[in-house]
Amino acid sequence: MEIDPAVLITFAITYGLKLLAALATLVIGLYTVKVIINVMTAMMERNDTDPSLRGFVSSLVSILLKVMVYITALGMLGVEMTSFVAIIGAAGLAVGLALSGTLQNFAGGVMILLFKPYKVGDVIEAQGYIGSVKEIQIFVTILTTPDNKTVLIPNGPLATSALINYSTQSTRRVDWTIGIAYGDDIDKAYAVINKLIAADDRILKDPEPFVALSALADSSVNIVVRAWVNAPDYWGVFFKMNEEVYRTFGNEGLSIPFPQVDVHIHKSD
Fold first, then answer.
1. Partners of 142 in the beta sheet?
2. Domain spanning 171-251: which CATH class is it, in words?
3. What is the pLDDT of residue 10?
4. From the centroid of its chain, how far is CA 37?
5. H/E element holding 230?
6. Which residues lie below 8 Å from residue 177, measured CB to CB, with a gap of 6+?
7. CB 204 within 8 A of CB 221
8. Residue 85: helix, strand or coil by DSSP?
9. 197 confidence band (pLDDT: 50, 70, 90)
10. Which residues pair with residue 228 across a beta bridge?
11. Each residue of 206-255: pLDDT tens digit?
12. Looking at the chain, which residues constitute the CATH 3.30.70.100 domain(s)?
């Protein structure tokens, strides 16, 4: 069958113009998206927005805008977008059901980045782990434990469960329970402990340290000691006080008791 050249020319002109318009829309649209993302990133940097949030928001907005540009370009070529969008929606629903746990972690990551219960560098305790936050990704949070292990915790449970952030407050309270033997001079024990507290400049004067008898236990008289320190000094003060108590109590005539059992053997005729 012979095709009329005029029809071919008309077809080429009609669809050639549509193709050129679609290409122009694609090029101009992608360039506009790039400009918008650059402006948005600059604004977030000026507002000192969290780096993790900057990257996430920029990526998400960029993807959404690019999808809109591609759909517009396809529509200009005559592609029926209603059916196309319906197919995308159905596929998105199927993928969403299959990846429900992943989407929960995604939503958790968004909540963490928006509300900032913790940030990079904070020491947190969550899901049975304690560590310093190394990185906040959109699906997981990466911790480095004190013994230098890397732990990846999904963001979903982090956003919906309780966690402890040890870095939020500038000061922390250090607690000790120090036992002395029954019969030891309690006032002398108080004096020695207060002297050790006063000798450590890292222990804050306000709030005032607290020393009191807390319990008459099975093998010891327990004294509770509470003192406030700057958060970075917590463990240093905790370990140093234990060491000083052990070294000093013996020299001061105070004993540190430990559980022991007396066995009496009675010999019968």
1. 135, 152
2. alpha beta
3. 66
4. 26
5. strand 221-230
6. 214, 222, 223, 224, 225
7. no
8. helix
9. very high
10. 173
11. 999 999 999 998 889 999 999 999 999 999 999 999 999 999 998 888 98
12. 171-251
Q: Determine the pLDDT at residue 112.
A: 85
What DSSP character marks residue 264? -
**What distance in Å separates the CA atoms of residue 48 and residue 44, rounded to the nearest whole number?**
6
Question: With a threshold of 0.85, does the pTM exceed it?
Answer: no
Ramachandran angles phi, psi of 266, nearest 5°: -105, 125
Sheet with strand 129-136: strands edge to edge: 150-154, 140-144, 129-136, 123-126, 164-165
Counting DSSP H helices and E strands in the chain, the numbers are 7, 8
CA quadruple 234, 237, 240, 245: dihedral, nearest 10: -120
Give pLDDT tens digits for 88-108. 666 665 655 554 567 788 888
pLDDT, residue 212, reads 96
Burial class of residue 78, CB neighbours in 10 A (0-12, 13-18, 19+): exposed
Element (H, E) at 180: strand 171-180
Quickly count: other Cβ atoms within 10 Å of residue 267's Cβ. Answer: 4
- In this structure, which CATH number among 1.10.3720.10, 2.30.30.60, 2.40.160.20, 2.40.160.60 belongs to the domain 117-165? 2.30.30.60
26, amino acid identity: L
DSSP state of 1: -
pLDDT tens per residue across span 18-65: 778 888 888 888 899 889 888 888 887 877 766 666 666 777 788 888
Q: Which residues pair with 15 in a beta bridge?
A: none
C-alpha span between 200 and 241 (Å, rounded): 9
